[in-house]
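For reproducibility, we list the full input for the AFP complex.
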Amino acid sequence: MKRLNSQLQKDGAPLELILLIRTLLAGCKEISFRVSQGALAGVLGSTLSENVQGETQKKLDVISNQILKDTLRDSGYVKAISSEEEDTVVPCDPNGNYLVSFDPLDGSSNTEINSLIGTIFSIAHAPQWMEPDDPSAFLQPGTQMVAAGYVLYGPSTMLAMTTGRGTHIYTLDKTHGGFLLTHPNVQVPHGTAEFAINTSNQRHWEMPIQQYVADLLAGEEGPRKKDYNMRWVAAMVGDIHRVLCRGGIFMYPFDKRNPSKPGKLRLLYEANPMAFLMEQAGGLADTGQGRIMEVMPSEIHQRVPVLIGSKEEVETCLSYYRKAG
Ligand code: AFP
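The corresponding predicted structure, in tokenized form, follows.
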């Protein structure tokens, strides 16, 4: 089986980017080990602190964030980091050529039940003019990403990654510590019968998504003339992995509860990397108002609505938005 390095070279990734990705993944392997120790290492449970977004931090959120920060900060490749668990950007090497954004441990509430969690990341060029502590350099649309991916800490540890030449999935071979290419050039399957959305928020959705989901739920008797199945892992990384492998649609739509939070998921380190992976696998990723990767961020923790998955299914969902004007 091909190793990560040779696939990155085949995809034409520059040497410095390859070295940066390998450094980042060294951190993820350490997270994978810590996660697998669970209660034995005393890493489960919450801290007494909240992150900048008002979410209680789990011990593993803090540990994973620290591992990635330590690994990347001294690598020499990174000028600055933005993380879900950091209030503002973390300055790194003034000569670094890249910016890295990450959610160190997505779905961290799942640590309590030994269920799916993962690390999501995106990488962009650092502008020459940028000071390492300047957050404005992160305010680039997702179309500027040079690489993105996630590491899923499940029964096996898997990496889904793109550098803009297709989406490939690798599996961590824990006997020698390398990521091996197990699913090259993944294509999101068409013709799906699965969707993922947290229906407990239904009363807060806008009309197009209300109607779209109602039609899915109506099954064979409804306008879609087909029975659907619903899935919810409570970790975007797990739900997106399912969609990437089996087809379908994942939604965290616009929410009327709080206008300052038009969706739950964060653009830089959740929506954008997943959008890049999905588009490179032949799928679509939209907010309902346009392509996720074209959204111009206004701040590093910006949230966006997310509709992502198989091309036909996302197009069908978007047709409800068009009909509603
Ligand atoms: P964390 O990154 O804070 O663990 O949040 C996970 C998440 O943002 C995303 O991965 C899930 O899709 C979503 O929250 C699930 O939230 P609800 O189940 O509360 O809707």
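Residues 47 and 59 are 5 Å apart (CA to CA). The longest helix spans residues 15-37. Both points were considered when choosing residues for closer inspection.
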